Hints:
The protein has 16 helices and twelve strands. It has 415 residues and is an alpha/beta fold. It has a six-stranded parallel beta sheet, with helices on both faces. Strands 7-8-12-9-10-11 form a six-stranded mixed beta sheet, with helices on both faces. It is an enzyme of class 2 (transferase).
Amino acid sequence: MKSLKEDAFRIIEDSVSSVLPERGVEQELKKLDLGGKIYLVAIGKAAWRMAKSAKDCLKEKVKGGVVITKYGHSQGPIEGLKIYEAGHPIPDENTIRSTKEAVELAKGLSKGDTVLFLVSGGGSALFELPVDGVSLEDIKNVTDMLLRCGANIVEINAIRKRLSRVKGGKFALMASPARVYSLVLSDVLGDRIDSIASGPAYPDSTRYEDVRKIIRKYDLKLPKHILQSLREETPKSLDNVETRIIGSVSKVCESAKNVAVSLGYNAMILTTTLDCEASEAGLFLASIAREEVEKERPLERPCVIILGGETVVHVKGTGKGGRNQELVLSAARGIRNYPGVVIASVGTDGTDGPTDAAGGIVDGKTAKALEEVGIDIDDALNDNDSYHALQKVNSLIKTGPTGTNVNDLIFILCY
Ligand SMILES: Nc1ncnc2c1ncn2[C@@H]1O[C@H](COP(=O)(O)OP(=O)(O)OP(=O)(O)O)[C@@H](O)[C@H]1O
Ligand SMILES: O=C(O)[C@H](O)CO
Ligand SMILES: [Mg+2]
């Protein structure tokens, strides 16, 4: 055991490492005997790293492929593969151009061939070809509307699937009679495979009736031609697909627990599905920390209490921040002057909201330190300006893009 903050960074580093794609990709590919010709298609924020490890494993067995990731997320050429970067969270011309390449490849395959499909979060924006009658401009507008309306990812993707020629199982249909073997890094709570990257190679579990409910629930004002396209049903069964999840928020939490125990802490996972408002979650975590300090419950100290999930922020202010930063800033209020407590929250992809930070870390001294530099926490939260507040007191966590993407890791350390 070192200082609480050093231990916190160690927990973050080691547990994020445990969900880097390499391990999962290698483990699964070793078990497999992929016959015929193998073609690789990788989509999402972790696409480059997933593709690199698959190529390193399978070497010249891979006959070609396409990798599509977010701008700034590729780490250079991979022999034999075409690497593209495109718009995220809103798709752009490069999304369409590179998706067309993947579609051409898939359509040209024969029985006995395999598409090794590497899927990670962010894939919905990065892999897109609109259905006939729907333009890229339409997709941009609808995506923007969906991202702002407060709908969750399952709801958002239910709509996206119907406006797309590749989402909702339709990419697998295009690849038929070849088989599609998918390795998936989950960034959807509960690991609903048909929602991850909008499930291009997985039977869709949503129905038109669900879509109608979503439109009503969020009062979405959609143009007529979009409403028309939404009526088209998606594939409900596919006979050429096989799917394995190789990383998820549960895995990162398990790993955080193991690291904490190895550092000498008692540790527990409280939940892997935290999905409430970020600032509320922060206050809740602070109250658990106070219970630890005052009543030594629920664990004997020193302890680490771990949560996984993805909180939400209804952005109303004009500041800069992300859900993890907002969570810890809010928590700082509740642990003010409590010694021996640290609360940390990070996005495992290394990017928390539209910032260069992965998240934040606070302790009992943070609230006072903010006051001393003239920052009122409530004001900062009201303006959704957690980034600048935490930056002032050196409480941001910066990792850079990690190459993986499995939701957020949140934990309390108490000494
Ligand atoms: N100023 C802000 N303060 C707090 N949160 C913000 C702010 N601006 C944007 N956000 C939140 O950041 C979220 C986007 O963050 P991020 O890019 O980490 O998303 P993500 O869910 O990890 O993306 P993906 O699912 O594609 O991997 C938005 O949903 C929004 O709620
Ligand atoms: O790309 C997406 O749809 C989200 O990241 C969920 O996987
Ligand atoms: Mg993120």
